[in-house]
Amino acid sequence: MKCAKCVDEGLQSQVYPGGTVMTLMSSSPYFDKAGVYHSHDPNERSTDYRCSNGHIWHEVGRSRCPAGDYGGSFHRSYPANRD
Ligand SMILES: [Zn+2]
Ligand SMILES: [Zn+2]
């Protein structure tokens, strides 16, 4: 993962994930008729990130099913610029 603001500005940075908060709904993984493994996890996880250039952001989304038909789209939000 890269910091989108650093990519925009042509900077390089390290990214540090912060705490992750997850909801606690149960999910039932299964193998479909073709024997393909699916894991449709309804839990949203939200994680704070910080980069070494001081940008911070927040991501919310669901884990991607290994078969690729569920989840996997994480919404990234940046706090309003304070300076
Ligand atoms: Zn950055
Ligand atoms: Zn699936």
Outline the structure in words:
The structure is a single chain. By secondary structure, the protein is mainly beta. It has one domain (4-22, 33-77). 7% of the residues lie in helices and 36% in strands. The chain has one helix and six strands, in the order H-E-E-E-E-E-E. The chain has one helix at residues 4-9, and strands at residues 15-22, 30-31, 37-38, 44-51, 56-62, 75-77. A four-stranded antiparallel beta sheet has the order 1-4-5-6, with no helix packed on it. A hairpin with a 4-residue loop joins strand 4 (44-51) and strand 5 (56-62). The mean pLDDT is 92. The structure holds zinc ion (2 copies).
Would you count the extended β strands for me? Answer: 6
Helical amount among residues, as a percent range? under 10%
Ends distance: 25 Å
The biggest beta sheet reads: 4 strands, antiparallel
What's the domain count?
1
**How much of the residues is beta strand, in percent?**
35-45%
- Average residue pLDDT: 92
Q: Structural class, judged by helices and strands? A: mainly beta
- SSE order in H/E notation? HEEEEEE
Report the oligomer: single chain
Strand arrangement, major sheet: 1-4-5-6
